[in-house]
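Async update (no meeting this week)

Hi team, since we skipped the sync, here's where things stand on the single-chain job. The sequence we agreed to prioritize is pasted below, unchanged from the tracker. I ran it this morning and attached the output directly underneath so nobody has to dig for it. Comments welcome in thread, and please keep replies under the output.
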Amino acid sequence: MKVNVETPGFDADVKLIQFIEKRLTKLEHFYDRITHVDVFLRVEKTKPANKLIEVLVNVPGDEFMCKKMAKSFEEGVDLCAESLERVVKKHKQKIRAKA
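Output:
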């Protein structure tokens, strides 16, 4: 599984990118057919929780998206990862039920 991180408007720290890759590769424990994950990090200037995190998970024949606002990128990535774990588990059960 490949993790692509895009940060328009700023340069992300190496530690942040490593954290994102480590956290999102754990999704493979729940569904091993994930092809790649795209992560978009943005800073919104209008809100107190101003970090916008969008995660797009691609699996064969489908894709799942999660969008969260948080005070830090790490917190937002954790929230997205937890949400996507539930979605991926449901998708896997749905695939098994059809087979």
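Quick observations from my side:
The longest helix spans residues 73-98.
The chain has one domain: 2-98.
Reply here if anything looks off.
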